[in-house]
Design brief:
Blueprint: H1 10-21, H2 24-36, H3 40-68, H4 72-79, H5 84-117, H6 128-133, H7 139-154, H8 157-184, E1 187-189, E2 195-197, H9 198-206, H10 215-233, H11 239-245, H12 253-282, H13 293-307, H14 311-345, H15 349-369, H16 384-411, H17 415-421, H18 430-456
Antiparallel strand pairs: 1-2
Helix pairs in contact: 1-8, 1-11, 1-12, 1-14, 2-10, 2-12, 3-10, 3-11, 3-12, 3-17, 3-18, 4-5, 5-7, 5-14, 5-15, 5-16, 7-8, 7-14, 7-15, 8-12, 8-14, 9-12, 12-13, 13-14, 14-15, 16-18
This protein binds 4-fluoro-L-phenylalanine.
């Protein structure tokens, strides 16, 4: 198969794929889940899952992409004609995620503006976040974020995505390490004289909390870790298939997967080192301060920064870091969709980028205005953005992963992937891979689907 233009080498590929993987999921969802799910207990379960389920799904996606040389829709079709439908579902996932991811990217841009152009005080004013997202004018920030993404994607795989990732990812790592160290040195004395330190917060983060553990709780923690893993590694949504199709044949898939996993998990772990100790020190012991989703990032953290010496600078650096992480994820989403449009319609890059940006913008309006002028419309009691998040992550991604496991495990057989990996190196964990893809991963996906359909709705 003739290779398309693509990444210049393994480092470029790994950094771009890690750029897709490292995003707001690492920075706000991972620390929250770790704090909620028993600290070290969650960390251990997550690590085991990364090395098993995550490794299997990521390897499979990349190998499918590189072997077929195609983006998702056509990759599945070329594996088995009748399985084209799986490519179509896979195509829809990044379309949905891209539209709301840009909205969240816009929120982050707004906070950067608050910290860099103002003193950061506005961020802690009453209802700052709510007022912002309920105002229709917030749409402008989303538009800027989307246009920045489109410009990078327009410049192509090597000159756009690879070049930006090679710059952003090392910078991001340095910033995360820097703020994590700062967070560990924090200290405050509460009104009753109790001293709280970042190192105490570190203990909360790392110590496995086994109190009151039951089989049910253990299962719940595992499910949380599994769905986080999915979203975090950007698997089963066509992205890693597309990036795999740009990978050089002479590069090593197995070692690339390990490097991507290490990068992704390290940033998630370090993000916990930033957030858990900082919130622990300044929340006055309120465990609910480590709440889920946007409010942790846009309400709790600004309040923490307000209490710190140099909080305005830390806030600015922090939100800059988040936007860089979100940008490399967003370009992977847009690239996946653009590459499919290019392949399907044989269009050039400019019209493909324009049409994808335009359509994403229109769909994205649902997520933006779902909080303001269209807030009366809800689906299953969810705002548009929450619904898109729910349907893509909890329903479509597990379905895609499950079907991919069946396709590779039982239809085309695991040799389809193994042969591609062994093109230039021995596949060291072939035995584990076979068991995982045929049996363990499908069971995990069924569990996620079951819990999403019957426990969350
Ligand atoms: N992996 C990214 C994160 O953890 O935030 C999010 C993401 C990027 C999800 C790209 C999906 C995706 F297609």
């Amino acid at each position: 198969m003739k290779q398309k233009s693509g990444f210049s080498g393994q480092i470029g590929f790994v950094l771009a794929a890690a750029g897709s993987a490292v995003g707001v999921g690492n920075l706000w969802r991972f620390p929250y889940l770790a704090a909620k799910d028993g600290g070290g207990l969650f960390l251990i379960i997550y690590l085991v899952l990364v090395l098993t389920v995550g490794f299997t799904l990521l390897t499979t996606d990349i190998a499918i992409g590189r072997k077929t040389g195609k983006s998702a829709i056509y990759a599945y079709e070329s594996m088995r004609k009748k399985w084209k439908f799986l490519g179509v579902i896979t195509f829809i996932v990044p379309v949905i995620i891209m539209t709301y991811y840009a909205v969240i990217g816009g929120w982050i841009l707004k906070y950067i503006a608050i910290y860099i152009l103002g003193s950061g005080k506005e961020a802690v004013a009453d209802n700052c976040f709510t007022n912002f997202i309920t105002s229709p004018s917030s749409v402008w920030y989303g538009i800027i974020f989307m246009l920045l993404t489109a410009i990078i994607v327009y410049n192509g795989v090597e000159k756009g995505i690879e070049r930006v990732s090679k710059f952003i990812m090392p910078v991001l790592l340095v910033m995360v390490v820097g703020i994590a160290i700062f967070s560990l040195t924090l200290k405050t004395t509460l009104d009753d004289g109790t001293v709280r330190t970042g190192l105490q917060g570190l203990k909360v983060y790392l110590t496995p909390d086994m109190s009151g553990i039951t089989v049910q709780k253990f299962l719940q923690v595992s499910l949380d870790a599994m769905s986080q893993l999915f979203f975090s590694l950007s698997v089963s949504m066509g992205i890693m298939i597309t990036y795999g199709s740009y990978m050089r044949k002479e590069d090593n898939i197995e070692s690339s997967v390990r490097q991507i996993e290490v990068f992704d998990t390290l940033v998630a772990f370090l993000s916990g080192l930033i957030i858990v100790p900082a919130v622990f020190v300044f929340s006055g012991g309120d465990e609910n301060a480590l709440n889920a989703g946007p409010s942790l990032m846009f309400i709790t953290l600004p309040n923490v920064f307000k209490e710190m010496l140099g909080g305005q600078i830390v806030g600015a650096v922090f939100f800059l870091l988040v936007v860089l992480a979100a940008m490399t994820s967003s370009i992977s989403l847009m690239e996946t969709v653009v590459s499919i449009v290019e392949e399907r319609f044989h269009w050039k890059r400019i019209p493909s980028c324009l049409i994808v940006t335009g359509i994403s913008f229109l769909i994205g309006l649902l997520s933006v205005f779902g909080y303001s002028i269209w807030s009366d419309f809800t689906i299953f009691h969810m705002q548009f953005l929450d619904f898109f998040d729910y349907i893509s992550n909890n329903i479509m991604m597990p379905i895609v992963a499950l079907m991919t496991c069946v396709l590779v495990g039982f239809v085309v057989k695991t040799t389809f992937v193994e042969d591609e990996i062994e093109k230039n190196a021995r596949f060291r964990v072939k035995g584990l891979y076979r068991v995982m893809i045929k049996f363990i991963c499908p069971i995990c996906m069924l569990l996620i689907l079951f819990s999403a359909l019957f426990l969350k709705l």
